[in-house]
Please model this.
Amino acid sequence: MSAEPRPPRLALTTGDPAGVGPEVVLKALASPDRPAAPVIVYGPLAVLLDRAARFGLRPPQDLGARFVDVALDGPVELGRTSAAAGRAAAGAVLRAVAAAREGRVQALVTAPLNKESLNAAGHPWPGHTEMLAEAAGTPDVAMMFVGGGLRVALITIHRPLRTVPDAVTPAEVRRVIRLVHREMLVFGVTVPRIALCGLNPHAGEGGYLGREEIETIEPAIAAARATGLDVAGPLPADTVFVPAQLSNFDCVLAMYHDQGLPVLKHVSFGHGVNITLGLPILRTSVDHGTALDLAAHGKAARAADPGSLLAAVGLAIELSRRET
Model:
């Protein structure tokens, strides 16, 4: 009988120290549902010790993990954005990425960042995906969420809605289609069936409600099909998620963040997982934000449900084993 493969070593970042990330990490590490794998935690150790004492959680030293301290360089107040919080959060991610690229860990799992704190710290990235792409030296990435039996990837990610139509170019749509097709192999899907949403209501209604489908999206689909990829669309986003329609596809490609993710989060919030496609390292993350508003009112401990982080750890282990 063959031995059970050794679990991968994971880097786990604590997210923005002013949000619920530290509590989520502490709760996940203490959970009886925690998947078995060695974990190295990157983040401000002083914050973890403070939150454990403040909210009656098990202290870091009792959680069976290694800790790499990313010290704060200024005051951080629970529930408030700050440059110090942004620097610590980004520093933890970048150190964990370096560990992954050097082979010291096999996957990266991240708690949420706060974009305002990142900006206050002078960082240009609007989120993890863009930060990781730059740190890994590859622009060919995409965001995908997995949960509730759905896989939803995005053509555009963190940008103002008014800028989305200009960002949906034929080249960008073709790029993300190719990337999703290639990366679906990690999920065990060898011939993925991809549904591509339209940009406008009713996928433009033949040009009556917008011409992006005709002038941008349809040519990109035709180019993808010409190379043998199985892509359907552009499909109206309000019906592509109907179960009878969805059963025909392995992944849905939405044009923008709030087109595809509300549906997935409705069916899986608290247990969904964000995965960055295209990186040379494996990265998963939670499906929620920093919840600074709750943390500011003393509700951080109650808001810190570890379900999504546990799911992200479990998926990182599963996908890492498939890659080896």
